[in-house]
Every structure is written in structure tokens, then in C-alpha cells.
Design goal:
190 residues, alpha+beta, globular
Length: 190
Amino acid sequence: MKRLVVLVAVATSVLLAGCGGAGSGAPSGSGGPAATGRPSAAPSASDSGGTSGDSSAQFGGDVCSALTKADIEAATYPQGSATFSSTDTQEDADTGRAVVCQYLVTFGGGPEVVGVVVSLLDDTEFGNRAEVSVLAPPEALSGIGTEAYLVQPAPGLFEVWVTGANGRFKVGAQAKDSAIALATLAAARD
């Protein structure tokens, strides 16, 4: 039952964040297969209040290069060890650029599920972190980018919201330590 609650919380959070979109293949260095694409429902950049910096410079222009297959498989998940499967992206409606990357994993022989999500953020979205963190106030973190906060939008979901070298982004995972560790790795690649 606990596993079901965690999976429902993660699925709800992903749906609330608007994660859907066209498949982008595997993260850099992963060699994994491409995910099947779905139509994008991402809002346009002009709807979200502008961006911090040149978002095309974030992660070399590919949000899915924020993390690698090795990063995803080394993360801690409540369900146990994960095997990287593929990535799936959500694109900006105006630019067609991927702004969200879902890293899909499997546990044992189970179905493919979202293990980690990296999303590019604009200034307005980043400023709304207190409203999004419904379980506890955002917690300032040090040593990740130039500014970082731990945000809890749902039970069993932890996000680290980061101001990096080339813009703002968030990394979401089911385990707090994994979200922090993966955000640290992503910030170093931004």
C-alpha cells in the first residue's frame, strides 16, 4: 500500500507539473532506447514570465543531459534498485525545445515508471516555490548552484530548485537524499 501511495503521489506531481511530451531518447552516455513520444502540452515561454539567463545554454541545450544513466541507476528509490529505461521530454510550445526531462526506470521486471524529473524554470516559477511546497516551507540548501531550495510538493516527492550557472531548474525524486545528490550533479553540468 505504501508503494502505491508513493507512486500515486509521484504520478500526481508529474501530472500537475504538466509532464508529457515528445520522447527524446536516452541521457548522454546512457545508450538506452528512445521513449515513445506523446503530443506536447507545455506552456509557452511567454506565458511564464520570462527566463533567467539564456535557457538554451542550460545543459548544453539538452535538458536530458543534466543527468546520466549512471546517475539515475545510482540514485536511491523507495522501491529498491532501478534500471534506467529511457527519457521522455516536454517541449516549450513556442520554441519546440525540451524544457522537462523525465528519466524512466524499471524496478525488477516491473513496468516503466518515472524515476527522476528535471525541469527548466523561469524567474516567476522559481519565485513560486513557497506556494508549491505544500508539506513544509522551502528549505535553503548550500553547495548546489548559486541558490538552492528543497521543496516538498506532495507526500513522497522531493524537489531541489536550483539557480545554476545558465539558469534555473528543479530536480524531483522520491527520496530526499537522491533529489539533493542529483541536483548537485545537475548543477555541476549546467
